[in-house]
């Protein structure tokens, strides 16, 4: 199984939990976008498709911020032969942003798809996220069929949140992976 991290705008810096997970945990690899500063939905979706298709095994998506919007748009995409959703075992989505807010820096991601995910999904949201009010994150989690974890007042749940390697997030991810494990035959 391969864990693919999907950072948001500007990627995830050295103090971000995603970057730490990539360095500390086995089978974790970042999906590298061509332009982290000016995301274009169709380009990011194509890059994610290529990354998923390149993995010979099952995939777990671990997204932060715009990576959450990317995941939803990737699933909403209907390009047979390009988008192979069957390889994805689960998704762990942290701090989805309000892509519909005024002056959002990535307008091609608006509106956020509100579709039921075809695999288990967890959403983690903060009560004081400057990029998304909690009721919006809760509504998206419900429409996606996600289990919602509220982390308290942790801002945008990024490098500035002081989470370090974020053990609680790792535990939630491990629980998600364990619950979706296929029996050994």
From TrEMBL:
Q: Which residues cross the membrane?
A: none
Q: Which InterPro entries match?
A: AB_hydrolase_fold (IPR029058), RBBP9/YdeN (IPR010662)
Q: Which GO terms describe its molecular function?
A: hydrolase activity
Tell me the keywords, alphabetical order. Answer: Hydrolase
Q: What is this protein called?
A: Serine hydrolase family protein
UniProt source species:
Undibacterium umbellatum
